[in-house]
Amino acid sequence: MTTVVTGASGHIGANLIRELLARGRTVRALHHVNRRAMENLDVEIVPGDVCDPVSLRGAFKGADVVYHLAARISLSMNDFPLIEPINVTGVRNVVEACLDCGVGRLVHFSSIHAFKQESSDASIDESCPLVEPPRCPPYDRSKAAGEKEVRLGIQRGLDAVIISPTAVIGPHDYEPSFLGEALLNLARAKMPALVAGGFDWVDVRDVVEGAISAEAKAPTGAKYLLSGHYASVSDLAVLVEEIMGTPAPKLVLPRWLAYVGAPFMAGFAQLTGKRPLYTTASIKALCSSQNVSHQKAAGELGYNPRPLRETIGDTMHWFRENGYLDSPAKDK
Question: Alpha-carbon distance 83 to 57, whole Å?
Fold first, then answer.
C-alpha cells in the first residue's frame, strides 16, 4: 500500500512517517524545503508543492492513501494573504489531485483552531460550527476554509476524513515548532514571564495513532477531535521544572497586559529575526475552552491520549538527546 504524506518534514509528519514505516507501509514523502526529518529513513522523497497542482498529480499517482499535513502556521493577525495560498488553495489543489489520481482515501489534518469557541467554559466537540471571518485570527480562518474545500471534494466523490488535533507537542520536533520552542525557552530559562491562560495539549504520537485508526476505520466524511489534557501555561512550566530542573518563571502576566505588550513583542521580533514570545493571536488562543471532547474518537477509534507529564518528559529528553539542550534532564 503506497501512502503519500504532504508536510512530511513537519512535526506531525516526522512522527507519522516513522509510524507508517514501523507498520510496514510504503511511504512517499512530499518534499518542498526542509528534509531533515526524513534523513536516513526508507521513504521515497519526491519534490512537490501544494501550490503546484502538476507536482501534486505526479506525487499522488498510484497512491492508495494521502495524508495531507502541509500547512503554514501563523500567530500573526495580518498573515491571511501569506497563508491562504497554502492552507486554502493548497487544500483545494490536494483535493483535485486526489480525485484526478483516484486516491483511495484522503486523511486531511485540520485543527482545533478551526472551531468557533464562544468562551473558556463552553464544551467543544465535532458538532461545533467552524469559525467565521473576519473577527477570528487568520490561521483559524484558513483552517476552517480548508475543511470546507475537503467537504466540497467529498460531495464530488472523494473518500476523505478530517482530523482536528489540539496543541501538538512531542518528540521528533526538528524545526522546532512554535510550541516546541516555547518548551525549549522554559528549559533554558529564557522565558521571563508567563501569560495567564491555558490550552488543551496533545501528544503528537497519540495524534498519529488516531489518524491512522481513522484511515482504517472511519466512514467517509467523518471528523475527529484529537484532544489530550488541558493545562495552564504555568502548569506546563512546573512540569518542565520538575523534569529539567529549570525554575519556572514566577511572573504571570494577566492577559490584558499581555495584549498591551504584544505589538512591542512583534516589533522586537521583526528587528531580531526571531519569533515573538507571544502575539495577539496566541494570547487569544489561551482563552480557549478547557473542555475539548475526544469522546467520539475514543468510542469509534479506540483513541486514548497518554498523560501530559509523560509527553513533556519524552519531549524534553528528545530535545536533549538531539542537541537542542545542554543540561541533562532529570529522570521522568
Answer: 22
Domain harbouring 106, CATH code: 3.40.50.720
Residue 223, C-alpha cell as written in the block: 471528523
Q: How is residue 130 annotated by DSSP?
A: B
pLDDT tens digits, 274-316: 666 667 667 667 777 789 999 999 999 999 999 999 999 999 9
Residue 296 maps to a domain = yes
Angle between helices 53-60 and 90-101 (to 10 degrees): 40
> What value does the mean pLDDT take over residues 92-117?
96
**Phi and psi (nearest 5°) for 198?**
-165, -170
Domain total for the chain? Answer: 1
Q: Per the domain annotation, does 63 fall within a domain?
A: yes
State the CB neighbour count (10 A cutoff) for residue 295. Answer: 12
Task: Say if residues 178 and 145 touch (Cβ distance below 8 Å).
Answer: no
261 CB-contact burial (10 Å; exposed 0-12 / middle 13-18 / buried 19+): middle
Which of 115, 199, 92 has its CA nearest to residue 164? Answer: 115
The alpha helices in 204-285, defined as continuous H runs, are 204-217, 233-244, 255-272, 280-285
pTM for this predicted structure: 0.92
| pLDDT tens per residue across span 11-54 | 999 999 999 999 999 999 998 777 889 989 999 999 999 999 99
- Secondary structure E strands in 55-140: 65-68, 105-109, 123-124
Residue 68: inside a domain: yes
How far is it, in rounded angstroms, from Cα 45 to Cα 29?
5
Residue 68 sits in which domain range?
A: 2-175+199-229+290-306
